[in-house]
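agent> Task received from the user: take the single chain below, predict its 3D structure, and emit C-alpha cells. No templates, no multimer pairing.
agent> Plan: (1) validate residues, (2) run structure prediction, (3) serialize to C-alpha cells, (4) report one or two observations.
agent> Step 1 OK, no nonstandard residues flagged.
tool_call: predict_structure(input=
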Amino acid sequence: MLSTKCPSDDAAPASPVYRFSGLGWGYRGEKREYVKKVLSRFNMNEAKLVSTPLGSHFKLSKEQSPKTEEERDHMSKVLYALAIGSLMNAMVCTRPYIAHAVGVVSRFMNGASLKLQGYVDADFTGDIDSRKSTIGFVFTLDGTAISWASNLQKIVTLSTTEAEYVAATEIGKEMIWLHGFLDELGKKQEMGILHSDSQSAIFLAKNSTFHSKSKHIQTKYHFICYLVEDKLVILEKICGSKNPTNMLTKGVTIEKLKLCAALVGLLA
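)
tool_result: status=success, residues=268
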C-alpha cells in the first residue's frame, strides 16, 4: 500500500536498526552491538553468564559503601557512574527487563566520589576585527565533560594576563551555579578546583590589592578574588599543553584535538 503512494526501492535489505525482534519491541541489530561494546569497555567480555539480571539473593546496603579515605580513593578510580549510564541507555531503548537491576545499583552512586573540576583558557585578541579575546571553558564530573562553552569576551582586554583573569571570573560564576545544581542532586562538592595555564592571572586573583595592572578592570570582573578569598574556588596552575580548553579557544592540530578530547572523557 505504501509503495502506491510513495516511490520505493526493494533492492537492498533493511538496515539492522529497522529489524524488530520477535518480542515486538526494540532494535535487534545495532543495540546488540551496543551491549557488546559496553561489555568490552568495562572489561566484561569474559564475565560469567547468569540467567537473570539480578539474583534473588543479591542485596546491597549503604553499609557496603566506602568508608575510609583509602576506600574512597579506590572507588574514585572506578567508572561506576559511567557504567550505570551506559546500562540506562540500553534499558530505556531496548532492555526493559534490566530496569530493576539498574535502579538498585544506581542508588549507591554517592559512593563513587564524583569530583567537579573546571578548566579555563583565553586566546588574547583572538578576533582580528574586534580585538576581543576568545575564552573557553569546560567542566568535568568524574573525568567526563558536563558543561562547556567558547565565546568572545564582552570587553577588550589589554594583556594576556588580563584576558585570563577576566575569563576566570566568568567561569567562576558557572562553577558556583554547578555547585548549587549538584548539591540539589545530592552530589555536594566540598570546593571547586579551577585550572588555568596562566600563572600571572592566578597570582592576580590571589592578590586582591589593586595595582597598576588591574585598577582599570571593571569591578564585576574582580569577583574571582572573592571566590578565592572565601575558598569557594581553588585556582590551580596547569601545564598549557595539558589544558583541554585549547580546543575551545583556537584552531589546533588533529593530535592536539584528540588529546584535548581525551582529557575530558570524550575519547577513550
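agent> Step 4: summary for the user.
The first strand starts at residue 116 and ends at 123.
agent> Done.
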